[in-house]
């Protein structure tokens, strides 16, 4: 019997950007990542791919192409840290 290949249906990543929110919030859109992520050669909307969510095609400089689904883009306004506890 074949062993199933482990897969993931979602990935969650986060990052800290050392800049005032008002200066970077407008840049944090998947279709604009090529403006600051040097590994991307371009990023663009995939038109008509899904009525429920945005699909963005990332083309990397090594010619790898990845379709990224953006399910949420939000800001909670809660910037507490472990040091505040």
Shape: globular
Specify the biggest β-sheet. Answer: 3 strands, antiparallel
How much is the average pLDDT? 77
Q: What percentage of amino acids are in beta strands?
A: 15-25%
Number of strands: 3
Taking the alpha carbons of the first and last residues, their distance comes to: 51 Å
Structure at a glance:
With 85 residues, this protein is mainly β. 5% of the residues lie in helices and 22% in strands. It contains 1 helix and 3 strands; from the N terminus they run αβββ.
Mind explaining what this structure looks like?
By secondary structure, this protein is mainly beta. The chain has one helix spanning 21-24, and strands at residues 40-45, 54-60, 65-70. Strands 1-2-3 form a three-stranded antiparallel β-sheet, with no helix packed on it. The longest helix has 4 residues, at 21-24. Residues 79-85 have low confidence and may be disordered.
Q: Strands, helices and their partners?
A:
Blueprint: H1 21-24, E1 40-45, E2 54-60, E3 65-70
Antiparallel strand pairs: 1-2, 2-3
Primary descriptors:
about 80 residues, mainly beta, globular
